[in-house]
Design brief:
The protein is mostly helical. The protein has a domain of 57 residues.
């Protein structure tokens, strides 16, 4: 008697999007760390908390919504630039 063979499905392609998004987020941590030296402590603390929240969101969405991670990484840069430029102009952090 011949044993029945199982049909093997090919493995689904791995999307590079979550890796790109996580790389963007990890690279942005240097900007957030740099801000401790040049902005008031309360702004740097708020930025660090925002970055930690974005990292937790990215970790939670790694499997659930991998196509959204590049947008989270881009959001990290947008938030950082908005706070640094906006605080520098509106709150006169530079002088």
């Amino acid at each position: 008697m011949m044993a029945r063979r199982r049909r093997v499905r090919p493995a689904p392609a791995i999307s590079p999007r979550p890796f790109i998004g996580m790389s963007m987020l990890v690279a942005s941590v240097f900007l957030y760390g740099w801000s401790w030296a040049f902005v008031p402590w309360y702004a740097a603390l708020a930025l660090s908390l925002v970055w930690a929240f974005l990292m937790l969101v990215s970790l939670a969405w790694w499997s659930l919504h991998p196509h959204r991670l590049p947008w989270v990484g881009a959001l990290a840069y947008v938030v950082w630039f908005a706070v640094i430029i906006g605080g520098g102009i509106l709150l006169d952090w530079g002088s």
